[in-house]
Amino acid sequence: MRVLVGVKRVVDYAVKVRVNPDGKSGVDLSNIKMSMNPFCEIAVEEAVRLKESKAASEVVAVSIGPKQCTETLRTALAMGCDRAVHVHTGLRTDYMELQPLSVAQILEKVVEKEEPDLVVLGKQSIDGDCGQT
Is the pTM of this model over 0.90? Predict the structure, then answer.
């Protein structure tokens, strides 16, 4: 069984965020520590547990976002994922530019291509808290 697990790069939960100086365009992401969304981390752990129990043969991590998402994918690989898929976009994925519906449509295409038997996602991201994808 192949398992596809979604991972998202977000502002680290321990960081105090700053609003952009204009007060309208969201959070200032310059020089700020980013990490894997904690709920995505739980999803990766569960997928890896399935692999360790021989219920799954392969775990594939997927992330949508800028080139820095490769750091998040490396973390997923270090946790036990077998492969990683990066869908590159220059848009912010914190609900400011790339909306949840667009993310879901991109994930749908990845699922069609990878043909997993199971897709595991975290319940929500800590940046937008949408819980829609």
Answer: no
- Distances, alpha carbon 26 to alpha carbons 1, 50, 96, 97, 104, in Å: 40, 38, 7, 10, 22
35: three-class secondary structure by DSSP? strand
Under 8 Å between Cβ of 8 and 122: yes
* Beta-bridge partner residues of 58: 2
User: Tokens in use for 110?
Assistant: 């990845």
> CA-CA distances (angstroms) from residue 43 to 30, 50, 53, 91, 129?
28, 11, 15, 24, 16
Q: Enter the DSSP assignment of 120.
A: E
- What confidence tens digit (pLDDT) does each residue in 11-56 have? 777 777 777 777 666 666 667 777 899 999 999 999 999 999 999 9
